[in-house]
Amino acid sequence: xxxxxxxxxxxxxxxxxxxxxxxxxxxxxxxxxxxxxxxxxxxxxxxxxxxxxxxxxxxxxxxxxxxxxxxxxxxxxxxxxxxxxxxxxxxxxxxxxxxxxxxxxxxxxxxxxxxxxxxxxxxxxxxxxxxxxxxxxxxxxxxxxxxxxxxxxxxxxxxxxxxxxxxxxxxxxxxxxxxxxxxxxxxxxxxxxxxxxxxxxxxxxxxxxxxxxxxxxxxxxxxxxxxxxxxxxxxxxxxxxxxxxxxxxxxxxxxxxxxxxxxxxxxxxxxxxxxxxxxxxxxxxxxxxxxxxxxxxxxxxxxxxxxxxxxxxxxxxxxxxxxxxxxxxxxxxxxxxxxxxxxxxxxxxxxxxxxxxxxxxxxxxxxxxxxxxxxxxxxxxxxxxxxxxxxxxxxxxxxxxxxxxxxxxxxxxxxxxxxxxxxxxxxxxxxxxxxxxxxxxxxxxxxxxxxxxxxxxxxxxxxxxxxxxxxxxxxxxxxxxxxxxxxxxxxxxxxxxxxxxxxxxxxxxxxxxxxxxxxxxxxxxxxxxxxxxxxxxxxxxxxxxxxxxxxxxxxxxxxxxxxxxxxxxxxxxxxxxxxxxxxxxxxxxxxxxxxxxxxxxxxxxxxxxxxxxxxxxxxxxxxxxxxxxxxxxxxxxxxxxxxxxxxxxxxxxxxxxxxxxxxxxxxxxxxxxxxxxxxxxxxxxxxxxxxxxxxxxxxxxxxxxxxxxxxxxxxxxxxxxxxxxxxxxxxxxxxxxxxxxxxxxxxxxxxxxxxxxxxxxxxxxxxxxxxxxxxxxxxxxxxxxxxxxxxxxxxxxxxxxxxxxxxxxxxxxxxxxxxxxxxxxxxxxxxxxxxxxxxxxxxxxxxxxxxxxxxxxxxxxxx
Length: 863
Known about the structure:
The structure is a single chain. Among the domains are: about 1-120, Serine Threonine Protein Phosphatase 5, Tetratricopeptide repeat, CATH 1.25.40; about 120-220, Serine Threonine Protein Phosphatase 5, Tetratricopeptide repeat (Alpha Horseshoe), CATH 1.25.40; about 400-460, no CATH class; about 475-605, 2-Layer Sandwich (Nucleotidyltransferase, domain 5); about 615-785 and about 855-860, Rossmann fold (3-Layer(aba) Sandwich), CATH 3.40.50.1460. It has 35 helices and 14 strands. The protein is globular. The model is unreliable at about 615-620, about 825-830 and about 830-850 (pLDDT under 50).
């Protein structure tokens, strides 16, 4: 205990190492049933936790949590030390949340803290510690969710902890500091000047109460610097900025070189210098800012999140300065770290939360790479590493490892065991609310992920397995384009390009008429019905499609069968229908007339889909088609054409020799029916969740069938052929920061195992859905259910529906010319645009309005 106390007083690492050795020896000498064993487990856990805080070694954190769990288990319910052990375990979970971002750890931590506080008498000396710990739990949850009630609860706990602590108590500085954090958070939320003043006051008092050589002093200095920086941003006083830089500098000097908080200290100092550069224009300040950011990015002991944030600042600074070679180097480091940010053990919701902060990073990295003169392949690699991370992770966990099992069966079986532990569903456990079960499950997944990383390194060291589950090589990218070119449209503030993968080369063409700012303006307009018109399609042709098709040599309508193109759209462009680009009133200047279009979220997803390729079994009765038709959906408008769609498909499925299954439109029944189907067709309502894409869903009688449900459904061994989602917005994402993750229903059915998925980009017309599905399935039947029949079928449907659209619009234009022959402006065959959602009398609507683009929203994802 003496060595540990000395470490906590002055921070000497040798004292901590001696303490851990002594705790370990004492524990080894203690029998399992000894009454002091729990105390010794607790002490060893605290030692490991302190070493984790000092070095950032994850192994120490896991050891600490293990000791805390064992200590709590060995402590009776009525033992006076039980509250302390609950609190320690909560601190372990809280540390792991800060390290990994797993929200379940945060909730477990808060539960432990609450129980610890409830078990602590009002007049107990340790009550202030319990109040502080619970306050920190609430504060961190506020940081995650933005719930104002959590912030107010945090401030209350901090205030009570301070009031329960004597003026001369050595821990009082920590409570002052935490209260200052609460006030600063509230200032940032409300802008109340008094809260900022109170925050700075608490920080100063905490610093004054802390000895010069105390290990926490660097933290107090850092927060005081942030308070001064906030004050500078509020009133612009140069003295506040200078004070902030001074505090940041002192905090950095007091932080050991290998400390896990060092990246955060470097980032803050870099921000200070950058603000001073913006104020004065002094190049030395810019150089200093770059130096701090670079040091933070490359600091190995700090958490990945604390390194990525300054790295993004650094990338932008190099870009602004035109240092593209340096920007490229930083881009490579950043994208390689994204996978570390989102380990397999994290839930999808946690990955979404972490990745949203770095939206557009991969596209900026790819653009910087091209500007730096590097190869298109290198730019494509960065896009593949930094986009579609969640889908890529799920696909990786479902990859075919038959070669590994055949050549190294023991290693393959261990890999499968760990993979299954990580893939075990968590959503139903959360619904049960059984804390001990959830905690065990979370610990198991975390441990399995660490072991899996080691196993994968071992596998990659074996002959022939050096690229096991790695990003595709250049040759593999080219193989993906065997059936037709893959066109990736990269959108960045730096510049926009088309990366084109063909079977013989990977090349890039700049798109000078495409600007991210223009796309964002048009993206905002997509929410308005009048924006969805032929002018939008013409803009897509001029800015993107025409240059790409020219580069591919598709400058005119080809003789014979049309070539295939797979489109991968990045950033806000992912909401746009590039397959429908063109001048449709004039004939051949359209994508639709020159190629058959399909989409993919990434090249890697396309490759993985093709690797699982096998012909569907279609003998009569051997496989089934699952039909779910929702003419009436609780709480939503009726869809009167759904019965007609079901009747027509029933006839076509008979021609395809498929057994028809129509389960009850309930979540469990539909999921069960999917297990042995070859085709799944849903006609009804779809819903896109703006805040959480994983909750986007098809609406059934008993509620949603969500994206997240499909993530936990694995049909790859069954190899289902087609999922047709005849509903609104099944390929839509409204959460702009997660647009590159492609977490929509179409992708979810691909992840589940369907080789082809038909979906929609926005709202669709009930009657048009019948026509589109009928034409597509007729082609599938005619072409004997080949892979190409799906994309060709949708293409035929689009052509036919477009012909009707053009014909009806042309008729409207002719009627207008007949009724209004004397108008000043000559009438062309192209109707005048107007707001399709605005109510007008029928005569005016007939004359002026262009019909909705009902043929455009349908898209194909797959092979």
